[in-house]
Design a protein that fits this description.
Order of helices and strands: HHHHEEHH
Largest sheet: 2 strands, antiparallel
Radius of gyration: 18 Å
CATH topology: Arc Repressor Mutant, subunit A
CATH architecture: Orthogonal Bundle
Helix content: 55-70%
CATH superfamily: Winged helix-like DNA-binding domain superfamily/Winged helix DNA-binding domain
CATH class: Mainly Alpha
């Protein structure tokens, strides 16, 4: 009889599946999940390179494409405009970038619906709450070491 797999297994397995699912959602556009994350962050408002880097840091792991490479690719499509030095080198979406973000948002929403199929909004909220508590417990413990 197989023992149930621990939470660490399921967290890592789900993480890997989400990466694959989001990449599959965007691959025909020549985009990756990290492109989406940059566009989605900029859709909330312009940001400096450092602000983008900080906002996206939790998602970046070793071997990920650099933020500069992603920004260059997005800029090459005409989706962003670099800020002026007086603006602190802010990066902002162009009108084309906002339109692209809206198109991608519909795809991402469909992917998220697939992920959450069979769960109520209350179950999702409780899952996030439980994971938040678990993460906080580990962070507190690590802070004491």
């Amino acid at each position: 009889m197989d023992a149930p797999k621990p939470i660490g297994y399921w967290l890592k397995h789900l993480h890997n599946l989400l990466e694959q699912q989001f990449n599959a959602t965007l691959t025909d556009l020549g985009l990756e999940r990290r492109h989406w994350q940059v566009l989605n962050t900029l859709a909330r408002g312009e940001a400096t390179h450092d602000e983008l880097k900080a906002a996206l840091a939790p998602f970046w792991t070793q071997g990920e494409p650099s933020l500069d490479r992603l920004l260059n690719g997005i800029a090459a499509r005409g989706w962003t405009r670099p800020g002026l030095p007086a603006e602190g080198n802010l990066v902002a979406l162009t009108d084309e970038g906002r339109a692209a973000h809206a198109d991608f948002a519909a795809r991402v929403a469909a992917t998220r619906a697939t992920v959450l199929k069979g769960l109520t909004s209350e179950q999702y909220t409780e899952t996030v709450r439980i994971l938040t508590v678990m993460a906080g417990n580990v962070e507190a413990d690590l802070a004491t070491r």
